[in-house]
Amino acid sequence: MSSATTTMGRSSPVSLPVIQDQPTDGNGSPGPGPGLPAAAPEPSAARLILTLGVAGFLSGLCLVLVYIATEPAIERNRIAAIEAAVFQVLPGAESFEVFEARNEEVIRHDAASGAMPSGPSVYAGFDADGRAVGFAIPGAGPGFQDTLEILIGWNAATRRVVGMAVLETRETPGLGDKIITDERFTSSLENLALEPPAILVEPGQRQADNEVDGISGATISAQAIVNIINDSVGAWDGRLPDQASLRASTSEQAEKQSETTSSSQDGNERRPAR
Hints:
By secondary structure, the chain is an alpha+beta fold. The chain has six helices and nine strands, in the order ααββββββααβββαα.
């Protein structure tokens, strides 16, 4: 055979990888390979608890600060909503004053003090001449989804509900919120008698003065409104000031001033000349 043939048949040397011993840590466990960074130690349980505690504290602090910052605006909006509702549920009212319950007695709240009423309150509405036209009574109770808050117009002289406004509701949109939009339901709450207590009837079936037209698809919400009206007016009835003799505070002051002036003038006329 030629030399060329001999060279072609000779086996070429094969290079095998060199296996190095893997370094170990002090406990004999395999350590990181050559060129790899050492694994970071796992945080301790105390550190995890401290981190979660600090995060929770900061989150709570932010919520408290936001609440404190927005509380005045929320309160102003709530008062504005109630004021608008008072005029809505008391036809003919031009002004109103707050009356609060104290020790089984309902007295006029001193608005000049700047303090909020300390007990349950109602709103007395007055016409342009200062005569009382009725009371706006707050009420609340369970609805279908959550608590319903309403304001009830009550004419204590005629013993009739004269209006209702919803202050807070989370009822199902398109169904439960018909307690606001359903005209047949809301109109049946005007001039509503509560003796005997009001009852809910089928839609369009109202015949008696104490009956309220129901709402298709929102029976639970409508029944909740009727229940709140019965309970809230019943809780205040008999405790309210006499509506026939009640006058706005400004009117009472004007009348007293007029009486004082008249008495003084009469005294001067009767006083003998010196």
